[in-house]
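My main concern about presentation is that the manuscript never shows what a single data entry looks like. An entry of this sort, consisting of the sequence and the corresponding backbone structure tokens, reads as follows:
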Amino acid sequence: MDQPKQERTLTLLYLLGGNLRLTFKDLMDGLGLSRRSLHRYLATLKEHGYKIKREAGGVYRLQSYVPEQAEEDENIVFTLEEAALLSHLIEGLDNTHELKPTLQCKLSSVFHDQTVAPFIDHPWNAKNVGVLTAAIRLHRQVYLQNYKCSWKGKASDYVLEPYQLNLNCIDLWAYDVAQGRCKVFKLSRIGIVEMLPQGWKYEKLHRQKTYDVFHIAGDAPLEHVKLRMSLKGRNLLVEEYPMAADRVWADGDFWFREGDVYGFCGVGRFVLGLSDVVDVVEGDKLRAWLAARVEQMREKFSQNLSAK
């Protein structure tokens, strides 16, 4: 099977296998297929033993092959043999393909098999990832419930237009309809995601941002910084932030890393946590940020000591 057809087949299986309630037209739009082509894909799946049913409201769904387990887990849609085959096919996709981590997450959630998706940190996120991926492909808005926002200090609900999943399904880029701007949401902080019937209304305002090696995103770099560190610092840097490894070099007894940062929280946490083995060689703004943080910490812990 050629790569584009393989990708469309896997995408169709994914869309049919989720609890997304998609019509024939939804599937056509999501896959970019004509009515005739989609009929051919569905016929091919049926020829290979997949049971596809048209339910009330014109919704197309895959039916479970394990009826005795269906009551225990309504999300089961593949046998273990099928899962193994799909896992093999998915592994053959390029690592940059947007559906690869999502399909791996789905198989992991269905069969509770961590070997299928070893990268996923919270297996219960798989369903949310599935809904978000479908919403992105179908250009639908979503209702994000019980999002635990760090800076608010409480959980909130949002209506979003999701348009990209980043960093192995750790971050979601979405347009916040109420606030009228693009934001990053951490999937581990999401409660429930529900796909809404209304489509995107603000696609022209969707913006892609760039990540620095410390996983901080922004529209433009805040500063170009250069770090000097010991071998211990170097090892911890490349182990915790693998993207930093390509610009690390040794000079004498020290190791160096330089590049743009889009915020100071990421690099700042790294430097403060290893202040005995990491120095800031270049980056006046970063130094000022670090000094302010150190002063805040000094005042905080001094007050704690005084209170005793």
In short: The longest strand covers residues 154-166. The chain has ten helices and 14 strands.
